[in-house]
Amino acid sequence: MSYSVGQVAGFAGVTVRTLHHYDDIGLLVPSERSRAGHRRYSDADLDRLQQILFYRELGFPLDEVAALLDDPAADPRAHLRRQHELLTARIEKLQKMAAAVEQAMEARTMGINLTPEEKFEVFGDKDPEQYAQEAEERWGGTEAYAESQRRAAHYTKDDWKRMQAEVADWGERYDALMAAGDAPTSSSAMDMAEEHRRHICGWFYDCPYEMHQGLAEMYVADERFKAFYDSMRPGLAEHLRDAIRANAARHAS
Description:
Layout: E1 3-4, H1 5-12, H2 16-24, E2 32-33, E3 39-41, H3 43-57, H4 62-69, H5 76-107, H6 116-123, H7 132-139, H8 143-152, H9 157-179, H10 187-203, H11 209-221, H12 223-230, H13 236-252
Antiparallel strand pairs: 1-3, 2-3
């Protein structure tokens, strides 16, 4: 059984011109010729073509492909094993690349469903993506980060405005609490800390008490977070941190 150059080109998804070139350089010389001198390919030729296309897909130049296939020490099974290893490595690399692209896409979705005008209306001069890269570097591999990005990708302008209104209302009430002299360990302060935790759970990701305490430390240690909370009332960041600690201890007992 033999096949014409046109048939082989159709089987393999290559052009006739490519097969002619492979013949010219001695990479794939047809086993037969018709009486009219036309190329005829055997099943063995098709096997060799498959090997060539495997290596070409993996980026090997033609001269290296020829050297590999014409190595007298290699048998067909050795080629298949090698190609399997190379393909597996490539698949793993592509999967990592796909995951990186997907993560980057998720990282870019926060607030992107808003137009520039809507973003300015909601956030004013505060860019919601300002710390997106740092957030990805800090928490990009965590389930909480992924969940936060999934949720935020679906929020509308009204969602963001409602969220900000909740934060503003909470800040006013916490300001009043501190003005009244309530200690971080008071029931009122711990209740406000619990409300803060539930706000995170409701809008972004599940925030257990241990994680909430970790966030509280960051609110004081990171000057940007500290400035945000202290803008509601000087000293609020430290007061909230202590209230979060007390609230976690209350629920652990």
